[in-house]
Structure formats: C-alpha cells, structure tokens
Amino acid sequence: MSEASTDTSRSWAPAIRSRRQALMQRLGMGAATAMIFSPMFGWKFSAFWVTGYFLIQVLEMLVFAPITSGQSARMGPARTIAGWVLLFSNAAAFGSLSIPLWLTGGPMGGVCAAILCASGAIYGTINSPGSRAVLAVTITPHFLYMFATPFWMSWYGASPSFLTAVCVAYAVFGTYCLSTWKSMDRAAQAEQAARLDADRRRAEAESAMAGRAAFLAAVGHDLRTPISAIMTGAAELERGAVDGAARSQAALITDAGIMMKALLDDLLDHAKLGAGRMTVEVVDFNLRSLIAQTVMFWQGEARARGLTLRVEGASTVPAAVRGDPMRLRQVLNNLISNAMKFTTEGSVTLNLKVWIEEPANYAVLIEVADTGPGMTAQQLDRLFTPFDQTEDGVSARHGGTGLGLSISRDLAQLMGGRLTARSLPGQGAAFTVSLMLPQGDAGAIAPRTLSDDSRGDIVRSLAPRIAGSRTAREVVDLPATEPVLRQAPQAEPEPVDAAGEADAERPLRVLVVDDHDINRRAVELILAPLGCDICTAADGLVALARCEATVFDVIFMDVRMPELDGRETTRRLRAGGGINADVPVIAVTADTSPDDIAACMAAGMTYFVSKPLTPAALLGALSHVLSGEADETAPAEAETAVA
Fold it and tell me: What is the C-alpha separation between 443 and 323, in angstroms, rounded?
C-alpha cells in the first residue's frame, strides 16, 4: 500500500505543480463568485463560504508542499490520502454553490448552477496534465452536481423531454472534457518528447563541439612545436646567409612559417568562437596608444606596397577606456591587413569618431576604408562566411581561408559591438567597428611593456648581463612577430652559485624545460649566440632535480608536459624554498586564453610567451625578466601618427 501510494503521488507531480501555478487564479475566481452571488445568498453566507474555500486552498498548498517546492516527486501514504481528500474537497466546495442556487433561485438559479459546474469541470480538465487520477478527482464533484440537475428540474416540474435533453447534454459535455484532456495530454507528451530530444541533440552538439575544440587545441599545440623550429631555424639561416640568394630562401621559409602560424591561430580562434569558449576581458587601456601602435606596425607594409596609410579624426580619441585591448587590436589588424590585401594603389584610411555617451561611456566608431576594387552585392552577402570557396568568393579569388573577417565580426559582437561593411564595385570598401567602451582610469593603466608592435632594441637590457667575453651578437633587427602576454615582472634575485658565492661575470645560466626535443633545441639555438650556459630537462621531475643542484638565472618552462606539468613544477619549485625558489620562470605554451594565463601566474610563473617561438619574442621575454622592469618607452612617433 505504501509503495503504491508513493508511486501514485509521483505521477501527480506535473498536475500538482500546474495547480500550484494556478493558485491565485482559483483564489480570485472564488472571491469573484462569492461577490457575484452574495445578493442572492447574503453577505454572511458568502463570507462563510469563501473563507472555507480559501482554507481548503491553504491546506492543499501545505499538503503538496514537497512536490510544489521541487524537493521531491513522491509523498508518503498519509500525505497522499490527504491529497486525494483535499483535491476532491476543493472541487466539491466550489461546486457546492449550485445547491443554494437551485434552492433560492429556482430554475433561473439552476441555469447559474449549470454554468458554475461546467466552468469548474473545464478548469479541472485543463489543470490536470498527465494525470488521470487528478483529472478524475477534480472533475467528479462537478459532474455529480450536474447529474443532479434532472432531479432539480423534476422538482420544479420540468417535462421528461427536457430531463432527457439535459442528461444527453451533460453526457456529451463529459465526453468533450475527456477528449479534450486526452488531446492536451498527447500534446504535452509530444512537447516533452520534443524537448527531451532537443536537449539530447543540444548535449550531443555541445559534446561534439567540445570534442572538436579539444582536438583542435591538441593539434594546435602539437603543430606549434614544428612551426617554432621552422621559424627559429629560418631566422638563424637568414642571419648566417653569405649571399642574397641564401637570405631570400631563408626569408621564404620564415614567411611560410609566419603564414602557417597565422592560419593556425585563425583556425583555433574560429573553433573557440564556434564552441562558445572565446572570452573577452575588461581592463583599463590607452585607446590612443593602441591605435598609434597599430598604425606604426602597418606603416612599413604600406610603404612596401606603395600605399598611403592615413588616420583621420584622431583628435576625438580618448586615452583611458575599459575593454579588451588584445581583441580590439586583433580586429584592427585583420581589417587593415584585409584592406591592404585588396588595394593595389591609393590609400588605406582609418576614420575615427568618438563621442561621450551617458552616463560614462564612449561611443567608438573605427572605419577602415580602402581604394581597392570594391565588391558586388553578392560578395557582400558572403563576406563574413568562413571558408567561402565559391567562384565569386574572396577566398577563392585571393587565397586564404576567409576566416579573418568572420572572426573579427564575432569578436566585435563578444565585445558588445558590431562590425559592418559597405562597398560598391570600383569604389573601394569600408569596414566599420562600432563599440561602446566605458571611460577608464588613466592611473590604472599598466605601464607599456615590451610588445611586438613597439619593441625597438629587444635585448638592450641584456647587455649588462652578458659578459664581454661572450659571443653576443646584435639582434636588434630580428623580426617581431610573436605576441607576448605577461604580468608585472618580479625583481631578479642576485645569482648565487651552490656555494653561496656571487659571480656577476659568469655566463647566464638558463634551464629549458620541455618534453619536445625540437623545442629545447630551438631555444638553445636562439640563446647560444648570447653565450648562455644552457641546461635542459624533458619533464618537470627532471627540472626539479636540476634546480636542486644548480643555480639558474631564468627558467623557460613548458606548460603541457607528461608526468608533471609546468604549473605544478613551478608550484613545487616555489614552495620548496631551495636555491631556485625565486628564479624567474617564463611560461612557454600554446595555450593563450586569459584563463590559461591566469593559471600560469597563479602557479607562480613570472612571465608568459606563446608558441610558436620567435627569437624576438623569446629574447624580449628574457630581457623583460632580467631587467626587472618593463620597457617604459612610448615613442612620440606613435602618438604623432594619430595626432
């Protein structure tokens, strides 16, 4: 009996929750009914009836509280029996007004009673989804009152034909209520099945997207290793080339490596956006400097193509705003690169418009316009379609994957803005980024650090650290192609050997930790000309053992490694209190999301440089941690470029 009753109460759950949602409707209907019929029954009777009716609603709410609160779909035997009684009493109390209506109103009161009972039966039919038991209990009292109608009519002298007609009418009405409930039940079941199927499909899609994103992340991480070696080796070949042909061949390899890296970055960004894993941060940054640095970065490319790169409206650009400077720079780089790609002569112009929007926001419009061939309406329709290889598609005619504009549009939307395009054949094209950026705190803007857009002599601060006897070479002209993300550096500890003796003239001691031999060799190749004393380790455990025996000046630490990853290795190194507990640790990894960077910094890493490595990026990171301060130079030319 107990098990049967709890199973019954569980089957009630949808209907009981539906009735709970309609509680206020029942209360309002009861109050209105009492008020309407009070002239016939008197105020005392109406007040007595509505009080009893409200009391039943309260008791029903208390009895079914475990179900309506979502705590459980079952009730014990006592609550189940009480629930049956209250559901029946609820309907019986509402329909009970039909008796005084017949007694005091005669046949006219009987008409009102019929309407009252019919409305109660319809209400019970609608509010009993998925439960025949609740349906039966809540409509039975109303039909009992209705089936008493022939007796009342006979009491008042109605002919047998009228009595028969009423019985048939009520039977038809009862059939209608049952068929209506079945139709609603089938619809509800179909809706539930569709919802479950949609949830299942969504879960499958999310799982597939997550799997694809994880696969691409793993492939991207592995691809960055050979790309790093290609770019590093090509840079060394170009440096040591003895003739122009050899330099051209090395430059060709470098360009191919850069192209591979750009393609890989676009593919990974596209996958993250598709999986909903791309995020934007909100920090204070200098918008004027960002635009100036971006323009300076592309000036050389513009001159090489015979184009003019212009900026208009820079006087409206504020300095301190809040947003994601890295993503905004990525969008601007994509748009300027796209404009130069399709412009053979003329100019590329950045039109800037900024105005204050209340309460404390800047409305920012950045238009990148070119004097290229323009586009047709059909090309504009497909402009933001990734991998568009149709005959008239941009990718098919000019190469590339077509991901840059698609990614830029999605990034603009992530930042709360829009990217739009307009063009006509023969009249160039214009892309407009519209953003709403809050006003920033100028005092909170971090000092400028070494970056690929403004780095001049990336190893100037290395000079005091590299003894004159070392075979240091000049590297000021190395290409800066790799973005570096970092936090404020830690002060460098005074190098002390195992015996505790300071030796400022010894070679720079570097530990390179990476599970891929090709990555270790690439770092060695970059650092060898600086005369560094380089030690390597294939995993975190070996690295910790090396750190127990030798003092290092800096550690390059891969993040993804078997056995013991770079973050845990760094945590153990910091917590161990050994001779290298305070040594600067530079994270070297392909995982460059803000969460990954934050995890590296939380583990105790000092700096962050992403794969694939380039000499400029690695030496810039080394300069940063060894100098003990960020590069504070902010060339006046950068500001002049947009002033």
Answer: 15
